[in-house]
Fold this protein.
Amino acid sequence: MVTKTILYLQSLVRELTKLPSETEWVEFKCNYQDPQMIGEYISALSNSATLVGKPKGYLIWGINNETHNIVGTGFNYRKAKKGNENLENWLAHMLNPRVECNFYEVPMSDDETVIILEVACAQLRPVSFSGVEFIRVGASKKKLNDYPDKERELWKAFDSTPYELRLAACNLSEDEVFMLLDYPKYYGKLGLPIPKNRDQVLVDFQNEKFLSTNDAGKWDITNMGAILLAKEIKKFEGLLKKTIRVIWYKDKGRADVIREKEFNNGYISSHEEVVQYIMTIIPQEEVIVGANRTTIVAYPEIAIRELLANSMIHQAIEQKGTNIMVELFSNRIEFSNAGCPLVEIDRIIDTVPVSRNENIAGFMRKCNICEERGSGYEKIITATSKNNMPAPIIRNQSNQFTKVIMLAQVPFEMLPKEDKIRTCYMQACLAYMEHSAISNADLRILFEISDAEIMKITRLIKDTIVAGLIKPVDINTAQRYMKYIPFWA
């Protein structure tokens, strides 16, 4: 995170004094320093900043309230006390919930110094001081409960700014923006020429919601901008765990690691890099088909692409402490991300698509990384079935994480019963989405079972019906012509 320099703070003061009058999120004072009133202003400015969509509110000493001229102040926040307690400490424990507040002493000239109290906007609930919630109405401080309409608007505002559009880095110069974001990759992915001037790049990035200007006339990068376009995600303090880790294990367990690689660049670059890296690791063999030599890979590339894109788009990016992970074992590949599945696992194919991070999903669709049509799992199931593989396992882990396990092809006899039943059900879902139904013959082709072993599939169909996952289209049809659809159809 870029620190606030004196030059930035001076620029901030000058920009705020250009306002025609005090606002809901800015208050000017000269030397006024009553601790109780300062605490009430913190509550009011924090709540009002949220209401008007500002990340910060400001209380500034040393500005004439009428003319907005810089006059300087004698207020010394370092020496100020409430009783025997330091002012900053007293204010902090009187606020609920605690909100980030920072004092800055800013020399504006040899003779004039101003004090800025920067107050973060309220995040999840209104900020109260000494048990009372305040709000700004125009330039006046009022009790929030006296304005029920404002209170209702405030509660709505807490849900209005998605995490992907909150700020990853603040107070940046143009040079710093271009040092942090990979703008050539943006234009390359969209198939557009790179503009000849940087102003157009900044305009494009604002339109994409990667950037915004702040109160000091500097640039802020959103979480979305950083996650998608960062040259190095780890340069953004709040996004350290949003990189993608690929771990390659020697066998079926996690005890013996062959190699681990972390992809630290933004997702529009790392998606392709991760896919190609995985494709070099997974087992391959060359076979002769007719007169041609063909390479057969153990897992279909399209399924890997879709599962990785799903992990990126549907992760709970606000959830701390875990990366997107791709783990390769001798018998499977596991994709893990923060956030539980957004739809019922049994209805993953037919449910209307839901995006946890709509802005990120929208841009990744523009880059042809995803489609936002809910077709991802249809492609995955289609690809795995064409490769005679069991349907992937989808798990909701404690309502905190999603794990998808893509299993390698194994002979039908070696497949656990639950894998056979799940695959049968997913095939029924896929067929139904195509206005069709599955038959015994369809499943024999999928599992590479000969006609002589028809009873193996007959038993599987019976097991899947008993599990409550499929049903006959018409119970009166002769057994050999029977077709089956999902239980919910």
Q: What stands out?
A: The mean pLDDT is 90. The radius of gyration is 29 Å.
